[in-house]
Write a structure and sequence with these properties.
- There is one protein chain.
- The protein has 463 residues and is an alpha/beta fold.
- It has 3 domains: 84 residues, Up-down Bundle (Four Helix Bundle (Hemerythrin (Met), subunit A)); 195 residues, Rossmann fold (3-Layer(aba) Sandwich); 150 residues, 434 Repressor (Amino-terminal Domain).
- Helix content is 56%, strand content 9%.
- It has 23 helices and 8 strands.
- The protein has an 8-stranded mixed sheet with strand order 3-2-4-1-5-6-7-8, sandwiched between helices.
- Helix 10 packs parallel to helix 11 and helix 15 packs antiparallel against helix 18.
- The protein is flat, with a radius of gyration of 26 Å.
Length: 463
Amino acid sequence: MFNNLTDKLQDALKKLRGQARISEQNIAGAMDDIRTALLEADVNSTIVEGFIADVKQDCLGEAVLRSVTPGQMAVKIVYDRLVALMGESEAPLNLGGSPSVIMMTGLHGSGKTTSSAKLAALLKKKGRKVMLVAADVYRPAAIDQLEILGKDIAVPVYADRGNPNVPAIAAGALDRARREAIDTVIIDTAGRLQIDVPMVQELVQVKQISGATEILLVADAALGQEAVSVADHFHKALNITGIILTKLDGDARGGAALSVRKVTGCPIKFVGTGEKIDEIETFFPDRMASRILGMGDIVSLVEKAAEEIDRQEAEKLQEKLKKNEFDFNDFLSQLRQMKKMGGIESILKMLPGGSSMLGSAKINMKEFASMEAIICSMTKPEREEPELIDFNRRKRIAKGSGTSIEQVAQLIKQFTGMRKMMKKTSLVSRLMSGNMNFSGNPAELRAKMNRGSNFTPPKKKRR
């Protein structure tokens, strides 16, 4: 989402990096560029002017002027101000009450029902016993959609078909939750094309009956400043406790993420990063600021790897790497692990400078499917010892995988290069092989990610 903003901010900050001395003159040029970048990202104009004034004042402060690297200090100031703009720190859910009740609100098309299921799956993974409540009695098939999603994640869904009384549905859901010792209830309420009096009255009644400790607004990030306006209206009507920004994987310009906290005073608690049920993340202002400035997000990447990577498989792979026995079976395993983590494009975006490494090129996921098909068409000896694959074998593999001989040859060439690279154990190979300790604070994690490996694998004997 922030690609364009990131590029423009990086260009602006280049004017400050490497400067031996910071002055009002060189600060002014950089601030003009930053102002333009933020306005083009659809950030509220009043917020932009306040942000620029604060950054400029900090940059001309005595600590920066006397610093050995004033340009780098100026970049840090921009980072710190971005963090402050988005909320300083994460805002955890208030899961008090018995059961804890979370109301999901928002306009039509914001992704409310899907976000309800995503949040349910996330809380279930953390050990909560969750129930979804289908309280949207107006949208056709809304109840069906929630029931299908609930079945997919093995979470019960309370629905009272034919009952148009939404507060009564909420009351019935709470009774069932107490009987079944469910500790978390997520109520998927109805949306509208716009905020109106009947909608607000209904939501207020549901809030009173349920005693909701969390009222989350689901807002489409692609709406930009309109999303901020919607959040402000909902907050005045319901006193919302937090926001879920959806569709951050799209081409939204980013203004909503940078404006909504300042305008409403409500924290962003989660962000939706895709259509899949597990593509929801806790919102960390410091990590988002790091991504916006092109510094990557190593901590989130390591946490994601810790969730997805099978530890036993990772240890086996590490031993193979040490003995230089990495083969196509392991390569196939890594392709599938990367798919679980969102693909190589998603991983690169979290690495420092990863977005610029990707550039304007888009990684074609069909190529990864072709790679998987080619490897699956190999025999066991061929996977274990790629050197056996001569022209006739390539021809057979190409036919079996529905690809060309050239594609098979290219994959073997890529694999050979990858195996050579892994002798030096690069950042991604260490991450994927599990040669990482996933505990510790962010500073320690970053240090571990940058630390090299000393082993030199022996050459593998050919059979």
